[in-house]
Amino acid sequence: MTDIRDNIDRANQKVVERLCAGQPVWIGCKTAVDVIPGMTRHTILHAGPPIEWERMCQPMRNGILGAILYEGLASDVDEANSLASSGRLTLAPCHQYGAVGGMTGITSASMPVHIVRNEAFGNLAYCVPHEGASPTGFGWGTYDEGSIRHARWMQEELGPVLDAGLRGVGGINMRQLIGRAIQMGDEDHGRCGAATTLLTRELAPHLVRLDVSKDVLGRVFDFLLSADIFALHVIMAAARSMVEPAKKIPYSTVVTTMARNGVEFGIKISSLGDQWFTGPAQPIKTVFFSPEWTAADATPDIGDSSIVETVGLGGLIHAAAPAQEAAFGGTYAEALRKTEEAYAFCAGVHEAWTIPNLDFRGVPLGIDIRKVLKMGVTPILDTATAHKDGGKIGIGEARAPREAFEAALRAFANSHEAESIDA
Amino acid sequence: MTDIRDNIDRANQKVVERLCAGQPVWIGCKTAVDVIPGMTRHTILHAGPPIEWERMCQPMRNGILGAILYEGLASDVDEANSLASSGRLTLAPCHQYGAVGGMTGITSASMPVHIVRNEAFGNLAYCVPHEGASPTGFGWGTYDEGSIRHARWMQEELGPVLDAGLRGVGGINMRQLIGRAIQMGDEDHGRCGAATTLLTRELAPHLVRLDVSKDVLGRVFDFLLSADIFALHVIMAAARSMVEPAKKIPYSTVVTTMARNGVEFGIKISSLGDQWFTGPAQPIKTVFFSPEWTAADATPDIGDSSIVETVGLGGLIHAAAPAQEAAFGGTYAEALRKTEEAYAFCAGVHEAWTIPNLDFRGVPLGIDIRKVLKMGVTPILDTATAHKDGGKIGIGEARAPREAFEAALRAFANSHEAESIDA
After folding, report:
1. pTM of the entire structure?
2. Contact A200/B200, CB-based, under 8 Å?
3. In this prediction, what percent of chain A has a pLDDT beyond 90?
4. Which entry of A43, A286, B205, B339 is 20 to 30 Å from B394 by CA?
5. What is the pLDDT of residue B3?
6. How confident is the model over B131-156, as pLDDT tens digits?
7. How near does any CA of chain B get to the CA of A328, in Å?
8. What confidence score (pLDDT) does residue A423 get?
9. HEC states along chain A?
């Protein structure tokens, strides 16, 4: 008779294999309503697990107000507020639409979205482009005129130019690019400078041949140069495309989604498909950009960007990015320790994403909720910090809340109650 | 009474300080004869210490023949051979003209040269652009039609476009860029992918705004994408500009130049100015690109690129670039060991160029010939391998010959024979 533990281990290996087999290719950047199945003119997507307007944190509400104004669905903020709370809009998690979004994650019909296709399985994923170096924008929870103007620029110039360039290059293989970026000191969440620089260099020969004015091209390259973080949202879409085929493997206790809405942190595990398990969004250990801000000003952990930790990047691999650790005063030894911890709670490694200074050991891949709970340490998520009223005010790291993992294990146990199970 | 050792130590610290204070800025890419003082239509510069035509290795001779044909100084190879051996050309080391050159180092009047200005001291240095991914070219010791055509393209398109772009950007600070590239896994000799990618991204906003056709721009960006090694020759010029102000500090035993011509390896030490001390060019431990080649096909160590080890990069910092070590089958532990060795024979560290996985310790800087001889280990030079008849056939690493260091220490001792000296 087979022990359930053998079934779980085999299932978890299968999940790791599917994550590892993913071949995410960045193939385009098109208007959300044209490409995201189910998206409408009255749909606004947000980060994290589902949450109603009334319970949302202020930055997320602000992002929605911004999107309503940007889409022309209301003519002023009061009208936008009424519409947002009226129930006449579809407010739903990005994840529910095959997408992800940074921080507030606000994604509306007219916005351009990166499209990543997982060539190994054929599925697609989406993410709005990162807003760049500015501390404001819908993602950061602001809706001032500058935020709306910048969103318009991304819609009118950035998206179409990137899309045409990607057509020229025939898509960029993000499995290779992320692998190379890790060799170059990116953990690909807080630090994406290598990935952004590589993307820029790879796109450049095609962008310069487009029938586009020098002014427009110049602005696109200015933007790419200004924002080391630009690649993050392409990497997030790549990760989103990798996790989909790893879902719904019976018996698997491996995490296939981690996402936060600023109020709750939610996870999914493979065997339980698209069911969310939540705990409270955690405070972020933040390095604030200015002494004027303290923890009291900060929104708790927010955004879908933790999809990158779900596929073995970010907070799981500080050993590959000692600068990420150093930004918070940590030593190289501490970076190594954190990464060893991640190896201990993961079910496997990614064969193509390797860490040079660990003799090219694959990154830890496939967070096993059983191991997390047994060890008593939850994954670290590298992140940024939004002001409670909106705007970027720092960078930081947070731990996932234990409650979400406990809820998932309880549900897993219930679904197998006839069999013997033990965390 | 001051011990001479104190004078030496103080002098060596001064040399380290001057190397460290260097602010190399890549300011242009212009025609050699227009910018290199003393250069004429009949001057051809080569790598390494001085050597007559008769004693040169074949790749260096081939490069000179190629340059003669490219410059139109002869109409065929026989005529070029006669001219080269006639004594009517000035054949001299790049180093003698404030320049450096990769592999054969061939530099002639019409070639474009990167210009780097050491802003802290005001001096200039030069290096021809790297020929890119091709295994042929004057640098590799070939003079076929393709090599000449490619040199012409660099003269007519690459050089002018880079020069205009650099004017637009106002120069690129190579101290910062090299520092960042080290954070990204470049040792900046065998591995320059991060530096090349960063340069491309930094130049792009200015290049796309130039009044240049899309075709020309496209070819320039294709070239920059094709050759991870492109930045090496800019880095070499930067290093060359850094060592000049560190020369001629009385009492200093720190190396200010290392260069090879394929027959001899030569060094200079600070206190003895521009005097060369040589030993035999060493065989290269090579990973050959094809099993058709063996050590018997290889030219000994050649090129001025070892100027980068002179300023603490390349073979001195494999700890920062484990992939460079792995390319030769070495482990991370071996990379660490080699870098510890370099710290032991260097007089100091570079404060702005740091190694993340050594807790941001500065790279070892200022090779002290006393320590090299006492330890019995000479610096490692990361390099490429040329076929004995020309053409790139592998990548490798070589050790500097002990003889050059011994000759330098003897000369140093002679110059201080009245004082007590002891290696």
Report:
1. 0.96
2. yes
3. 97
4. B339
5. 87
6. 999 999 999 999 999 999 999 999 99
7. 13
8. 45
9. CCCHHHHHHHHHHHHHHHHHHCCEEEEEEEEHHHHCCCCCCCEEEECCCCCCHHHCCHHHHHHHHHHHHHCCCCCCHHHHHHHHHHCCCEEEEHHHHCEECCCCCCEECCCEEEEEEECCCCEEEEECCCCCCCCCCHHHCCCCHHHHHHHHHHHHHHHHHHHHHHHHHCCEEHHHHHHHHHHCCCCCCCCCHHHHHHHHHHHHHHHCCCCCCHHHHHHHHHHHHHCHHHHHHHHHHHHHHHHHHHCCCCCCCEEEEEEEECCEEEEEEHHHCCCCEEEECCCCEEEECCCCCCHHHECCCEECCCHHHHCCCHHHCHHHCHHHHHCCCCCHHHHHHHHHHHHHHEEEEEEEEEEHHHCCEEEEEEEEHHHHHHHCCCCEEEEEEEECCCCEEEEEEEECCHHHHHHHHHHHHHHCCCCCCCC
pLDDT more than 70, % of chain B: 99
Whether A403 contacts chain B with CB within 8 A: no
Among A194, A202, A225, whose Cβ lies nearest the Cβ of B205? A225
Nearest CB to B221; choose among A196, A208, A331: A208
Question: Which residue of A199, A208, A359 to mutate against B (max B Cβ within 10 Å)?
Answer: A208
Is-contact B113 B107, C-beta < 8 A? yes
Whole-number pLDDT of residue B423? 45
> Which chain B residues have a beta carbon less than 8 Å from that of A184?
184-185, 193-194
Span A267-285, average pLDDT: 98
pLDDT band at A418; cut points 50, 70, 90: confident
Instruction: Give the CATH class of A21-238.
Output: alpha beta
Given an 8 Å threshold on Cβ–Cβ distance, is B360 in contact with A322?
yes
Architecture of domain A246-415: Alpha-Beta Complex (3.90)
Mean pLDDT of A106-123: 98
CA distance B56 to B51: 6
Average pLDDT, chain A: 97
Mean pLDDT of B178-183: 98
Residue ranges of the domains in chain B? 22-238, 247-415
pLDDT digits 0-9 by tens, B279-321: 999 999 999 999 999 999 999 999 999 999 999 999 999 999 9
Residue numbers of A between 353 and 372 with CB closer than 8 Å to B:
356-360
Domains B22-238 and B247-415 share a fold: no
**Residues A296 and A394: beta-carbon distance below 8 Å:** no
Nearest CB to A194 within list B184, B323, B357: B184
Quick check: A357 and B208 CB within 8 A? no
Best CATH choice for the domain B247-415 from the list 3.40.50.2000, 1.10.357.10, 3.90.1700.10, 3.10.105.10:
3.90.1700.10
Cβ–Cβ gap B184/A207 under 8 Å: no
Which residues lie below 8 Å from residue A379, measured CB to CB, with a gap of 6+? A258, A306, A309, A315, A316, A342, A345, A367, A372, A399, A400
Q: Is the pLDDT of residue B402 over 60?
A: yes
Range B22-238 classified under CATH 3.40.50.620 = no
pLDDT, position A17: 98
